[in-house]
Amino acid sequence: MMTLLSRFLLPLALCSVLGSPALRAEEATTASATTTSQSDVLPQRNPDYACTQCHKKESEGMHGKHAKATNPNNLGPVTCTNCHGKPSPRHREGVKDVMNFADASMPLDQKNGVCLSCHEPKPLREAFWAHDVHATKLACTSCHELHIAKEPMVGISDKARIGLCVDCHGKQHAAKLANEAEASDKEAP
User: Fold this and answer.
1) How many whole angstroms separate alpha carbon 18 and alpha carbon 29?
2) Mean model confidence pLDDT for the chain
3) Computed over its alpha carbons, how large is the radius of gyration of the chain?
């Protein structure tokens, strides 16, 4: 008899403590009616919290333009997972499941695809012609740094830009000459 009685009393007790489902639904409707827009609702937790527990040097978050940027894809702030992707449960075991822009084994088109998911190609070309020329040969992160307060490429003078071109292409030219010399040494009797 006690079990039969508890079957009826337990739901009544829960309703008195939690409120009836009908009352909760009514309260939710009233609460949503008083909220003027979704932009008034603030996230309750930092979306980057799980990332920064292991990646301590990033615990202060991003700096510079990306820190203040709005992700054009979801109109929210830029977060770790926007650029690096969502890690799997095995991420802490060393599984390579997120974008690591410094990893040479990550495909170039995937690295640049992350950047191009927010940055439109036409404005990049208009800002500097080299964006178009190099987009299929170099990762954006070959020239741009993402987490620092002052990105060195922003506001760079034309003279400094030319210097970067000469430095990089000078190294490429020297490497090409070294490879040709090594090949000719191997062919020599």
Assistant:
1) 17
2) 75
3) 28
The Cα 145–Cα 94 span in angstroms is 24
Q: Which of 73, 45, 47 is nearest to 58 (CA)?
A: 47
User: In degrees, to the nearest 5, what angle opens at C-alpha 67 toward C-alphas 62 and 71?
Assistant: 120
Of residues 58, 56, 105, the one with CA closest to residue 83:
58
State the Cα–Cα distance between residues 105 and 119, nearest whole angstrom.
Answer: 23
Please count the other Cβ atoms lying within 10 Å of the Cβ belonging to residue 89: 8
Summarised one tens digit per residue, pLDDT across range 59-106 is 666 777 888 889 999 998 888 899 999 999 899 898 989 999 889 889
Longest dimension (CA), the chain: 103
Angle ∠(44,49,54) on CA atoms, nearest 5: 170
For residue 121, the surrounding DSSP H or E stretch is helix 121-127
Question: Can you tell me which residue has the tokens 């489902």?
Answer: 21
Q: Is 122 exposed, middle or buried (0-12, 13-18, 19+ CB in 10 A)?
A: exposed
For residue 39, the one-letter residue type is S
- Token pair of 70, please? 């709005």
